[in-house]
Automatic annotation (TrEMBL):
PANTHER family: COENZYME Q8, PTHR43851. This is Putative unusual protein kinase regulating ubiquinone biosynthesis (AarF/ABC1/UbiB family). Belongs to the protein kinase superfamily. ADCK protein kinase family. Keywords: ATP-binding, Kinase, Nucleotide-binding, Transferase, Ubiquinone. Residues 105-320 form the ABC1 atypical kinase-like domain. One of its GO terms (molecular function) is kinase activity.
Length: 448
């Protein structure tokens, strides 16, 4: 006999708002005037000018409304908020606090579907007798994802499982959100100093169809679980069952990185950072893929000391492993071989044909970004991230104009974003670790 929690359902259905007009109206309700003034203050701060014009109360109000709108919409809007949240370490501290809290909430909270809706999706995806596959199923969701929610359950063989159920209308919502968010890219740009928001949106859009089919995510997760099976540092939950809009995998209990960021000891922070870096740099060699959704909600520290990684909807497929050119660029920059560095960048498409750049200027622009590799140990701090954002965002500086003259080839966009996101988490963790040794072990082209 299958056992369930109380299935009484008096709530109104809370499916994702699908109509473009409704979703556009919600996005338009973002406090553009308030946020615009805050953005102006951020801009002055980032360019080294006075920060006194920045109003913390207005910023807090904007952050509160940002979370409310993006969290309610879920879909692409929530996914975009999650993508932005890893970059908040680069925002000046006096501006970051309200956005840090609001955006971090996006990693773990969203209005749930009603139990009636959830059961309807389960019946559509797993068959009318879906309940027979579970010994227990909790109607109340345990967590929210960008395009689905997670329920705790017990599989028919007694295993505790996590059941991720996609929101009805997620496909329409994702497309609608990302179209509309393009309109507000200048507003959101302030949340990601030194990073172009439009390519981020374009890249998210390009990968949507893949993420909407949970069978693809299940295949990705199976591949990672196989690659890291028996590993003493990284744990990937096994997939139990999957369908286009439902995925069932092993349930895992651990401490989310968001908690360690907020309350962790220095030892916990350093170890979480080391494990994250090890996973990031070793994945291309071990799984021939790169986990491409780096935000604290997707990582947990287990009681046995391992890092648990979840959510494999977005991955970069690297059948040949990490590109050796990346290691070569790092090495040439560290060695100060500026002319060879510029040649390597030009050959890979980082410099558009016909663009004239000074090799020493390019080296000066990149060197601070590889500072974590210049010493045996490096301390990732918010201050360091803020300094880089200010340096790259100062319109009066040579670095700003050098950065604007460089190009990011499409095949490098995902690697760039994921690496930047991982570094953002390391800065949030305030982690100190031996990154150079990890890169030397796993990144082709670096140690040659």
């Amino acid at each position: 006999m299958t056992e369930f929690r109380d299935s009484t359902d008096d709530r109104v259905d809370t499916a994702m708002p699908r109509r473009t007009a409704m979703r556009t109206a919600k996005l338009a309700s973002l406090p553009l005037g308030i946020a615009g003034r805050a953005v102006g203050g951020w801009g002055k701060r980032l360019t080294g000018q006075s920060a006194e014009e920045v109003n913390a109360a207005l910023s807090a109000k904007a952050a509160e409304q940002l979370f409310e709108v993006l969290g309610t919409l879920k879909g692409g809007a929530m996914k975009f908020g999650q993508a932005l949240s890893v970059f908040e370490a680069a925002v000046p501290e006096e501006m970051a606090a309200p956005y840090r809290e609001a955006l971090t909430k996006l990693q773990a909270a969203a209005p749930p579907m009603s139990p009636k809706q959830t059961r309807r999706v389960l019946a559509e995806q797993l068959g009318r007798s879906w309940a027979d596959r579970f010994a227990e199923f909790e109607d109340e969701p345990a967590a929210a994802a960008s395009i689905g929610q997670v329920h705790r359950a017990v599989w028919h063989d007694g295993r505790e499982v996590a059941v991720k159920v996609q929101y009805p209308g997620a496909d329409e919502a994702l497309h609608s959100d990302l179209r509309q968010l393009q309109r507000f890219s200048r507003l959101f740009q302030a949340l990601v100093p030194g990073t172009e928001v439009k390519p981020l949106l374009a890249e998210l859009s390009a990968r949507m169809s893949e993420e909407l089919d949970y069978r693809t995510e299940a295949d990705n997760q199976r591949a990672f679980a196989k690659a890291f099976h028996g590993d003493g540092q990284v744990f990937i939950p096994k997939v139990v069952a999957s369908a286009p809009k439902v995925i069932v995998s092993e349930w895992v209990t651990g401490t989310p990185l968001a908690e360690i960021i907020r309350d962790g000891t220095p030892e916990q922070r350093n170890e979480a950072g080391r494990l994250l870096a090890e996973f990031h740099y070793s994945s291309p060699a071990r799984a021939r893929m790169l986990h491409s959704d780096p935000h604290p909600g997707n990582f947990l520290l287990l009681d046995d000391g391992r890092l648990c990684v979840i959510d494999f909807g977005a991955v970069a497929r690297l059948p040949e492993g990490a590109p050796p050119t990346l290691g070569v660029i790092m090495r040439l920059a560290l060695q100060g071989r500026s002319e060879e560095l510029l040649d390597a960048l030009r050959a890979e498409g980082f410099v558009r044909p016909g663009t004239e750049l000074d090799a020493d200027d390019v080296h000066a622009y990149l060197l601070p970004l590889i500072a974590p590799l210049t010493a045996d140990r490096f301390h990732f701090t918010r201050r360091w991230a803020q300094k880089q954002a200010m340096r790259m965002g100062d319109t009066r500086s040579t670095d700003f104009h050098t950065g604007r003259s460089l190009n990011l080839p499409p095949n490098w966009l995902l690697i760039h974003r994921v690496t930047a996101g991982a570094v953002g988490i390391l800065c949030q963790l305030d982690a100190e670790l031996e990154l150079r040794a990890i890169v030397e072990r796993w990144q082709p082209g670096f140690a040659a």
